[in-house]
Amino acid sequence: MATGAKSGRAERPAYLCRQCGWTTGKWVGRCGECQSWGTVEEVVAPAGVTRPRTVAAPAVPIAEIDADPAIAWPTGVGELDRVLGGGLVGGGVILVAGEPGVGKSTLLLDVASRAAQRGRTVLYVTGEESAAQVRLRAERIGALRPRVLLAAETDLATVLGHIEQVGPDLLVVDSVQTIASDAVDATPGNVSQVREVAASLIRVAKQRSMATLLVGHVTKDGSVAGPRVLEHLVDVVCHFEGDRHSRLRLVRAVKNRFGPTDEIGCFDLSEVGITGLPDPSGLFLSRHPEPVPGTCVTVTLEGRRPLVAEVQALVAPSVLSTPRRATSGLDANRVALVLAVLDRRAGTTVGPKDVYAATVGGVRLGEPAADLAIALAMASSTYDAPVLPGIVAMGEVGLAGEVRRVGGVGRRLAEAARAGFTTAVVPAGTDDPAPEGMTVYEVADVRTGLARAIARPD
Predict the structure, then answer these.
(1) Rg, the chain, Cα only
(2) Pick from 108, 302, 114: which is nearest to 216 by CA?
(3) Omega into 286 within 30° of 0, i.e. cis?
């Protein structure tokens, strides 16, 4: 009998990563999911069989489900609505992460004000600042609304009590790392605390169909601080990016259960608040009275939005045994690839020289369509000959020196024509029609592209 009881309630050892929740049957020093070291700990889990439970509400045909609660309502901030896929969804939980001082609190306070202006009740919970500090910021950006209720709290139970009392349509928590639960014996911001706080707020949001915005911190490498399970639990993860020396801010969705994940929102952050930029292309271009060697314009696609951006390069003789390579706003690996192709396939000697490549306005160009513009900018600087006026270039460069086709060329050309450019260099085989008044040159390789775009001195 003792044996039977033992077999019925036998316990087996298991190991759990406290960082991401990954489980394994044996101890390992490094988590197999999040690759963190020293986070796998032993837990004891019962080996009993889960019995079926009586169903309270039977499953219904999918066509009979009411879809109205999942319809997004606009925030009033057009650029944020673009990123979210139309606006906020009742019960949806959105995590907004970014570096300190980038403008997360200012943006969410503006969202709270616009939601209140549309008749919705907003509960704004601040754990990092006092209520008076938030009030002063709201006054500065014109976000004082009677339907925005402010609470300075760091205790999870008290926050849940405020939610019960107010019954808000929108909850803003700034930030999730500052809230702590008495049920967890750990300091605020600890992995266990963040997991418990986030899980409790998400559970309440789903029960009440309450839209929720959570502010999250980021680590030194720019990833969301805290357990990876936090990103899995929420519905939307947005990264708020921007150079602290520039007013331009970008909101990028890296996860979105309600819309696309390749859209960006552009904002201008100033002393009087944050303003959406529906047409930001001009911010990524420099103004020169005459053509300057080492510059070339391309059109990048961020989601469905084309953006005209300028690539600048400086190729100079090096006094170092190992020439320097420096990039800003560009993928260093792709810049190195383009350099090798120029040196080997196009007869442009850049190997023994220092190379600096950057974008204008703080924009990041990560897609391969910018390769041809990078090649033209670096070759232009090497020859000390400017790219011909009015030219934009787009195309992916291959290791054999070929220029490969890219998607969305029609939208890119239309945006370039709207910005005043009259000539485009595109990959061979592009079927998209050219806008009226624009001349399009199709090139099959980098060498041909250089001949089309740069007037080399004799």
Answers:
(1) 27
(2) 108
(3) no
pTM, to two decimals:
0.76
Domain holding 39, by residue range, is: 11-45
User: Is residue 233 within 8 Å of 198, Cβ to Cβ?
Assistant: yes
Output the domain CATH number for residue 249.
3.40.50.300
Element (H, E) at 307: strand 305-317
Whether residue 342 is contained in a domain is answered as: yes
Angle between helices 332-345 and 371-383 (to 10 degrees): 60
Where does residue 384 fall: left (phi above 0), alpha (psi -120 to 50 degrees), or beta otherwise? left
pLDDT tens column, 159-211:
999 999 999 999 999 989 999 999 888 888 888 888 899 999 999 999 999 99
- Which two structure tokens, joined as six digits, stand for 96? 């907004």
Is 3 part of a structural domain of the chain? no
Asked if residue 291 and residue 264 are part of one domain, the reply reads no
Residues 358, 348: Cα–Cα separation, whole Å: 20
Contacts of 397 by beta carbon, 8 Å cutoff, 6+ apart: 337, 338, 341, 368, 371, 372, 374, 375, 403, 404, 446
Distance, CA of 283 to CA of 290 (rounded, Å): 19
Residue 287 CA to residue 306 CA, distance in Å, equals 20
What are 227's two structure tokens?
């357990």
Which pLDDT tens digit goes with each residue over 12-25? 567 888 777 788 88
**Measured distance CA(301)–CA(281) in Å, rounded:** 11
Question: Which parts of 219-295 fold into alpha helices (H)?
Answer: 229-233
Q: What is the DSSP letter of 303?
A: T
Residues 17 and 87 in one domain: no
Which residues are CB-neighbours of 229 under 8 A, at least 6 positions away? 20, 21, 195
Residue 70, burial from CB neighbour count under 10 angstroms (0-12, 13-18, 19+)? middle
Q: How many domains does the chain have?
A: 3
| Crossing angle between the packed helical segments 156-166 and 191-208, to the nearest 10 degrees | 10
